[in-house]
Amino acid sequence: MLTEPASQSLYPLKNSIDIFPWDDNFETGLIQIDDQHRVLVSLLNTLASHVAFRSEIISLEKVFDALTDYTIYHFKSEEAIWAKFFAEDHSMAEHLAVHEHFIQTLTALKEARKNASSDQVAHDALEFLTRWLASHILEKDRCMAYTVLAMQEGFALEEAQAQAHRQMKGVTRTLIDIILSLYSALSSNTLNLMRKLDEHQKMEEAYREQRRRMEHLARFDALTGLPNRVLLTEKVQEIINLSECSRNFLAIIYLDLDGFKVINDTYGHEVGDRVLIIMAERIQRIVRGQDIVSRLGGDEFIVVIRDIPDFDTCIPWLASFLTAAGEVIPLDKGRTLTLSASLGVTLYPQNEEITPDQLFRQADQALYQAKQAGKNCYHVFDMVHDHEVRDHLENLEHIRLGLERREFVLYYQPKVNLRTGAILGFEALIRWQHPHRGLLLPAQFLPMVENHPLALSLGNWVLDTALNQIEDWMTQGSPFIVSVNVCGQQLQARGFTQQLRDTLARRQKGVARYLELEVLETSALEDISLVSKVIHDCISLGVQFSIDDFGTGYSSLSYLKRLPVHTLKIDQSFVRGMLEDPEDLAILVGVLGLAEAFQRKVIAEGVETLAHGEMLLDLGCEGAQGYAIARPMPVDKIVHWAASWQVPLSWRFRPVLSKDDLSSFIRCASQQATKEAKPKR
Q1: Nearest to 605 by CA among 588, 580, 593, 581
Q2: Is residue 82 very low, low, confident or very high in pLDDT (cuts 50, 70, 90)?
Q3: How far is CA 522 from CA 485, 550, 570, in A?
Q4: Statement: residue 582 has pLDDT above 50
Q5: Which residues contact 643 (CB under 8 A, 6 or more apart)?
Q6: In a domain, 212, yes or no
Q7: Residue 206 located in a structural domain
Q8: How many other C-beta atoms lie within 10 A of the C-beta of residue 439?
């Protein structure tokens, strides 16, 4: 009795591939034949799945046994059906011959297992079965099935065969061609790739394991197994994120071994590594489970002490770390080492938001201070000083950006002859047109750039801008002398004279005679030999020089002789105070005497009232500058001011005193100032 073979897969597979999924188009219309064909398709897909996913455990014995069972059942069953309709037709004989060829091929494949690899035999079996499915089952069996169906409807054999051939010319032929094309494209390539799936999966697992190891190395120190900077940063950030619910502090302690480089150089890196491992173990024994110990690299560790109420609570830990670092470290052959450590400490939270990296930098800065203090100690980060430094750096950056964005402007304050009203020139004064704070005076930003390279940048900008203005006035036919303040840093900078020479060479001829450089008296005295040489060199270019704020320095005869300046500008504090303060008046008179003796011009700053001008005229000083004349103004206001400026009548018609009258006047003025300066009872 024939038994229908099982259609399910021989092996339960986690993965399977239906290289030929059963389709309704495969069906012939004869249920018994279609059921048997479905069994062959199932066997074919089972073999494909084994080849693709389980090639190393495939049992071709069982596969071929299943194919043998299918062949015996199918051929006998199918031949019985065909015999009823094609007993006398040549197609029956051809069909039997094809079945016989199938049996011979299957037998040959079984024999091939003795000499060929299982993979090769399985591949050959797949190719044979697929071509059998396409050429025999889908073509010949289908054609015979169509013939049987036509005969069952009453057609004679020849008419039924003609109708079956007509049916086969259309969709069925196309379907067969598609099946063969699919096999050639998929069977040889896809199955070979799928056959390596297990190897690929093993490689993936190896890759995942390698990645886990790499991730561990990326977050942990390879030598000590402690968290490295990456993981430390993550953990501290997590603590910061959760700190809103806590009122306690976090202590960040930067620990560095003193003189560790000597150990590596003397004993070698192996001993150095051992020291680091021992130190890591000692630190870990000191801290609690909730605390964090991290090695940044080299001999640098960071310890994070969590949930402390104040800094004093942290002190015992700091002492323990210093003690642990100083404990004897045993080496081989009875040798020992003794070290020390320096600690830098900072706390969180602070008055402003801060990142883990900023906390680490603060602790590092404190560590540097501990090293400077002699090592083997700790130092706490100074937040107030840090704020001052950061504010200063921030201000410098704002000034740099302001210069880059052209936010600075020059205002000009006139210098005049008090008696005649003649305009002697203008002093260029820098202002900062701040986008948020409005117009800023020099005192609000120049002290920030003192002894900083930005002072040179600002000074060069002022000089270039003033020269541009001189050229504009020259072009208009009404040039004025413009005086520019030059700080000591700029004047003494290397190459100042050459830079000025190059700048003047690029401009109109004669521009130098309208440029006056003002040097603070205190700056000139810093290196009088150098300053004197620079002034001599610049004067050779046609530039004039004046001493600004004269009287605030030494005002000695020797340096006046060595500095070839054209003008002395009397400091405004003496001018403003001369009406009430006899000492200011005495200094003013002395400066005027020096100027006359050395044949220098004089400009008195700080003339704020008519009385100041009148007193200066009485003392023989006619050059002046101050609010009583004009405040500093933008360049577009100068033409209108110059056109409307008139010297006050009390100045214009002030009589010129003789030398005898001047001496008497000075004596009386001093007595009057002394009298007014006495406190009232």
Answers
A1: 588
A2: confident
A3: 13, 9, 13
A4: yes
A5: none
A6: no
A7: no
A8: 12
Rounded percentage of the chain residues whose pLDDT exceeds 90: 38
Assess whether 341 and 311 both reside in one domain: yes
Q: Find the range with the poorest average confidence among 22-36, 173-187, 260-274, 387-401.
A: 173-187
Q: What's the CATH code of the domain at 361?
A: 3.30.70.270
CA–CA dist 646, 628 (Å, integer): 12
**476 and 547 belong to one structural domain:** yes
Total of domains in the chain? 3
514-548 pLDDT, tens per residue? 999 998 877 666 677 888 888 999 999 999 999 88
- CATH code for the domain of 668: 3.20.20.450
Domain that holds residue 191: 24-198
Asked whether residue 189 falls in the same domain as residue 228, the answer is no
Task: Give the chain's largest Cα–Cα span.
Answer: 164
Tell me how far apart the terminal alpha carbons of the chain are, to the nearest angstrom.
147
How many other C-beta atoms can be found within 10 angstroms of the C-beta atom of residue 125? Answer: 24
Do 129 and 50 fall within a single domain?
yes
Same domain, 305 and 434: no
CB burial of residue 485 (10 Å; 0-12, 13-18, 19+): buried
Query: What are the DSSP calls for 484-511, one per residue?
Result: EEE-HHHHTSTTHHHHHHHHHHTS-TTG
Check: pTM over 0.85? Answer yes or no. no
